[in-house]
Write a structure and sequence with these properties.
Number of helices: 12
Structural class: alpha+beta
Mean pLDDT: 80
Strand order of the largest sheet: 1-3-2-4-7-8
Low-confidence stretches: 1-49, 183-218
Order of helices and strands: HHHHEHHEEHEHEEEEHEEHEEHEHE
Strand content: 15-25%
Radius of gyration: 25 Å
CATH class of the largest domain: Alpha Beta
Length: 373
């Protein structure tokens, strides 16, 4: 509301003004007051969502020691025992997620919680890397999507955040809401320039206006922020730019349902190949994957995840680090990293991967594998 509106209301509400202007002016003022102030009051005073300290302590006893993935069965138990609605539960999980954030640059902890179509709840946090450009950061929403994708999730129904998502993340999230329900594809049948990226489907010329978006579907991604009315992603990102603008139908959650038999002598390379196969690279067709080997013999992998706007994309090493962090591991436990890329690909993650690894695990070995796959 502008200052002139406030002045108009305050002046007209003074007794002498009412006498001077007469009953008709008073009626007009009452109308302006009711039509302008009441809606603002409704928006400014949404239901309070955060619960008491006692309720939080009770909730924490139900949360698994590693809360990054909470099974649908456990979610149902938590809802039943706490008396919370699932949306309220998501809000209450935000401060718990924040504890696992790693922001050495900003010291600003981000916590995100989301409900998947499977009924599972996933958490996400921000990862910052000292000595690296700021664009090496993994945002909390990005972390959560990678976490959910790694666990076979196909759709996010609702997402709770402590504040509205930044523009970077709104754009990244748009890649999971366009074209829901795309079928999985066979990883064995793709490769080469003639069929470079199976998850991409050229738009049907019969579709007027291009490919359908989430707005044409029955459900939309709900964004939940404490003490704020629920919003949809489409309301936070109107007239979004996405795959359909590039003549494609794609969705980041689509994964292959058949993989080639990776029979490499190195289990690390084989896992990096599998991750490369699971990449989401509809724009560059430069599928790539990373596998991380830790000191105790465990392997964590990640796939490149592209975005229609390019900059919000995630490298395979960033995605692999998400997998590492969701298992509550430290960066200094990394002893070896393998990056697998397609030969003669349009883009390469080698330089950025080497630079990031040098900062977080300087003693780790790095290997690049260029493959025809």
């Amino acid at each position: 509301m502008s200052k002139s509106h406030y002045f108009f209301i305050l002046y007209c509400c003074r007794p002498e003004a009412l006498i001077f202007e007469g009953i008709m002016k008073f009626s007009l003022t009452a109308f302006v007051f009711s039509s302008m102030i009441l809606p603002i009051a409704i928006v400014a005073n949404p239901p309070q969502i955060f619960f008491s300290e006692a309720a939080m302590k009770k909730l924490e006893t139900m949360i698994p020691s590693n809360p990054f993935v909470i099974s649908a069965e456990r979610v149902n138990e938590m809802v039943s025992m706490s008396g919370l609605e699932v949306e309220e539960l998501l809000i209450e999980l935000i401060p718990i997620a924040k504890r696992f954030a790693r922001p050495p640059i900003s010291n600003y902890q981000v916590g995100v919680a989301a409900l998947g179509k499977s009924g599972n709840i996933y958490l996400g946090v921000n990862l910052e890397f000292s000595g690296q450009p700021l664009n090496a950061t993994v945002h909390g929403e990005q972390f959560l999507i990678v976490n959910a994708r790694n666990h076979g999730e196909t759709e996010i129904v609702a997402m709770a955040l402590s504040a509205a998502p930044c523009g970077h993340c709104r754009q990244f999230l748009n890649e999971i809401v366009e074209n829901p329900g795309l079928k999985a594809w066979d990883c064995i049948s793709w490769g080469g320039d003639s069929n470079p990226s199976p998850p991409v489907f050229l738009k049907d010329p019969a579709l007027k206006g291009g490919v359908s978006s989430v707005e044409d579907e029955k459900g939309q991604l709900q964004i939940l922020i404490p003490n704020t009315p629920p919003r949809t992603l489409s309301s936070l990102l109107p007239e979004a730019f996405g795959p359909k603008n590039l003549g494609l139908a794609a969705n980041l959650f689509v994964l292959p349902d058949v993989y080639p038999p990776f029979t490499h002598e190195s289990p690390l390379v084989a896992e990096a190949l599998r991750a490369a196969c699971a990449s989401y690279a509809p724009y560059s067709h430069s599928k790539s994957g990373v596998a991380i080997h830790t000191s105790d013999g465990k392997i964590y992998s990640g796939s490149c995840l592209e975005n229609a706007a390019f900059n919000p994309s995630l490298s395979p090493l960033q995605a692999a680090l998400v997998a590492l962090v969701t298992d509550l591991r430290r960066y200094d436990e990394i002893v070896e990293v393998v990056l697998v890329e397609r030969s003669a690909a349009k883009i390469s993650y080698e330089r950025s991967a080497r630079a990031l690894l040098k900062n977080i695990a300087p003693d780790a070995q790095f290997h690049l594998e260029n493959r025809e796959f």
